[in-house]
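Hypothesis: this fold can be encoded by more than one sequence.
Test: take the structure tokens below, design a sequence, compare later.
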């Protein structure tokens, strides 16, 4: 049956005689267990209360039917997250029907058949959804590398768990409820232009959208209303790549264990912080995602009366944003395989503030040569001093983006920046203090050991106090005074030791830690064990060791 222009519809009537495609420019499937559990709970509560359940607004555009099919084909403009989730849930429930004839009739009505689904995401997600619903036993979970596909797999897994104990009667009740009692407000539009307008109206009425969806939507709206749709295809194509880049970023982030706070807003804001040239009148390095979106909308509003200027701005923005997003994603993929990136990105872990600059340098092929100075800045300023200056870095990010700065120019800017916050004198002063809990210490000690630790070994290391944090012996016997609390946390009294070994040596005096130290994979602490074994190891040795580590740091993390 055809879907009317605008009215409330039941899920059953939507799928009856219709097929749906999710275009590649759409946001990939991204509902988590939180949203899926909420849907399941809503259905359960509505069943108990004998009430219909309204799940929101859907927007479709009718396409031509494919081949000899009598089904009407619709392109989903808005609502694919809900439709995809309900579609997977229906398939799980239908699979539990014991009567084969009933099961087949329900599949034909609501799901479709193998390789001919009633809901089909274009691209690789479509092939995966087909495999998930009809050949799930052939899926190797470890090989799923798309975040959207991981989420679809998790959706089926969750719904199978929730429906596991349902009786046949309860399964049938839920299928009937989804078919006859879940309602949506449907907008069936004639053109993409009308769809964009409707999508923007829905957004303005307060339905939550993610920042990339909102950004694409507002650009599509201005292209539709003021540029006669000239940029619609370009916006769609570029945002498809931006969405894919973001999804790939999340997958690789989880694999590498870095960028723990990265979210959709991050890639959006990081691009803005390094794009002052596009927002000269309103750019501010303290702007958050909502303000940045407002600035984008304001810029389009200012230019709408001069279509050529509006077209140029949107073209420049989406081209630069796409390149930035793809480069961000490619950089993180390179972190997994490029040796030079392992220590600064995975061991030390760059502060998020540096990423707009790092990505811009990567885009221009200048990152590798400037990596040592960036690592030095991370150690000195962001970790050791513990401050997070953003203005200088975001300014430089935009300079790198706007002007053809040489690597030497950029290096000089970075040196000036470092000297402004932590010059050599200040660096040495910090290194001489009690810094056991500082974020730079583990990396400093790892570099000082000169061992090549794999990432798992490095993560297992803990900062070990040679003379213990809570000693069960008299520290004055080793030359320490009343300021032991200060002295024990200084650099000379610290080393790296595996967690298990660290627990074993606990609060013992150094001479009783020798056996534990000798079992370590850290050559430096094994050498230390030999020094302790010789006897007379006391505060003097710790002070000498501190001076040696500080001298190493001044050379290793230098500004030249």
């Amino acid at each position: 049956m055809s879907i009317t222009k605008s009215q409330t519809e039941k899920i059953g009537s939507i799928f009856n005689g219709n097929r749906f495609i999710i275009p590649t420019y759409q946001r990939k499937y991204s509902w988590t267990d939180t949203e899926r559990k909420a849907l399941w709970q809503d259905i359960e509560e509505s069943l108990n209360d004998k009430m219909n359940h309204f799940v929101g607004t859907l927007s479709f555009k009718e396409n031509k039917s494919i081949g000899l099919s009598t089904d009407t084909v619709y392109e989903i403009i808005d609502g694919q997250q809900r439709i995809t989730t309900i579609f997977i849930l229906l398939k799980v429930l239908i699979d539990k029907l014991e009567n084969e004839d009933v099961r087949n009739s329900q599949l034909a009505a609501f799901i479709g058949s193998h390789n001919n689904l009633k809901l089909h995401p274009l691209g690789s997600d479509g092939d995966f959804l087909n495999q998930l619903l009809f050949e799930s036993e052939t899926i190797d979970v470890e090989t799923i590398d798309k975040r959207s596909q991981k989420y679809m797999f998790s959706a089926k897994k969750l719904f199978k768990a929730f429906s596991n104990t349902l009786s046949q009667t309860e399964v049938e009740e839920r299928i009937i409820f989804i078919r006859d009692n879940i309602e949506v407000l449907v907008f069936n539009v004639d053109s993409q232009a009308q769809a964009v307008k409707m999508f923007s109206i829905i957004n303005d009425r307060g339905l939550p959208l993610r920042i990339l969806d909102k950004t694409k939507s507002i650009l599509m709206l201005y292209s539709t209303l003021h540029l006669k749709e000239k940029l619609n295809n370009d916006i769609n194509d570029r945002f498809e790549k931006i969405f894919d880049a973001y999804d790939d970023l999340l997958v690789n982030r989880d694999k590498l264990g870095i960028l723990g706070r990265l979210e959709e807003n991050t890639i959006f804001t990081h691009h803005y912080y390094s794009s002052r040239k596009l927002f000269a009148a309103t750019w501010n390095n303290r702007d958050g995602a909502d303000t940045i979106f407002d600035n984008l909308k304001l810029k389009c509003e200012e230019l709408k009366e001069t279509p050529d200027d509006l077209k140029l701005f949107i073209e420049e923005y989406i081209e630069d944003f796409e390149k930035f997003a793809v480069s961000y994603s490619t950089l993180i993929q390179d972190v997994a395989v490029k040796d030079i990136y392992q220590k600064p990105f995975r061991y030390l872990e760059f502060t998020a503030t540096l990423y707009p600059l790092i990505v811009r340098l990567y885009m221009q092929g200048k990152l590798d040569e400037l990596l040592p100075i960036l690592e030095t800045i991370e150690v000195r300023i962001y970790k050791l001093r513990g401050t997070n200056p953003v203005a200088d870095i975001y300014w430089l990010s935009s300079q790198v983006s706007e002007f053809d700065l040489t690597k030497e120019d950029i290096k000089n800017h970075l040196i000036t920046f470092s000297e402004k916050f932590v010059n050599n004198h200040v660096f040495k002063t910090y290194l001489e203090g009690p810094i056991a809990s500082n974020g730079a210490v583990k990396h400093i000690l790892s570099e000082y050991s000169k061992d090549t630790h794999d990432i798992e070994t490095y993560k297992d290391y803990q900062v070990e106090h040679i003379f213990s944090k809570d000693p069960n012996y008299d520290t004055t016997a080793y030359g320490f005074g009343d300021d032991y609390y200060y002295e024990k946390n200084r650099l000379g009294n610290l080393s790296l030791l595996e967690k298990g070994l660290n627990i074993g040596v606990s609060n013992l005096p150094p001479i009783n830690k020798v056996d534990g130290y000798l079992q370590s994979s850290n050559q430096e602490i094994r050498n230390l064990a030999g020094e302790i074994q010789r006897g007379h190891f006391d505060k003097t040795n710790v002070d000498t060791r501190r001076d040696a580590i500080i001298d190493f740091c001044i050379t290793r993390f230098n500004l030249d």
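The first strand starts at residue 6 and ends at 10. The first helix runs from residue 11 to 15.
Hypothesis status: open.
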